[in-house]
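Same chain as my last thread, 287 residues:
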Amino acid sequence: MVDAMWGNGAGWFTRLLSGGKTEVIEIHNTRNPIFPEMKRPEPIPPNINVGLKATVDNKADVLLITDGDADRVGIGDENGVFVNQLQVFGLLAYYMLEVRKERGAIVKTLSTTSMLEKLGKLYDVPVYETGVGFKYVAPKMLETDALIGGEESGGYAFRGNVPERDGILGGLYFLDFMVRLNKKPSELLKILFDKVGSHYYDRIDSSFSGDRASREKAIMDAKPATIGGLKVTGLNSTDGFKFNLEDGGWLLIRFSGTEPIIRVYTETTHKDKVQAILQDGLKIAGL
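reply #2:
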């Protein structure tokens, strides 16, 4: 199942995979700048809920979602459950390292998964963390001849291709991953979690008013000992405020560069602490 989100991804998977045993069913595969049935063409819920339901209704093995310009890819599993962007990044890195047996650096923004550091240690490859955005990821990929690079938005780049996000190639690699291991997405995620442990992610975007600089100072001065009941082990203020936590997880508070919005993100190994971490993050941000 393919959800092209009324954008440039329409037709590509059908064209590339036709002529064999693979059946491709596309939805939202014509150009429509109004983007019906979704808030915006971003490959995350609730924009993809129609596609997730269609996956179950058609008994499809996987849902591939491309955003409006097809530089990002999202994944839904065979049960109509969204596989979040951090999980997909971990899965694609694992596929490159374990299945394809390739080696090379991993480049990640600070807003994406800590599973990559764990994979880096397991496979003895360096992992480089950058600011948010491919304007930071791409140069680091070129500098290090990186195997894969990516960010929290669902954009991934691969060695041998241009150092820029490519949703079509990312989707094709994911399909190859499924075929090589003869596994469906939920089974692949279990394999990854068996390797690096379960990781849970969520994000809240909140509007704010007033002076940004005073809020940034208040966040820097907060110095919380714990967040969500987990001990804070460090603070990275390279691009926003990333509080590292004792379980290897993190809380990131970051201001949008284009609108008065504060984004609060977390990834943790404790499923039951996700919302508590986010609520503490909102308090630290003065929201």
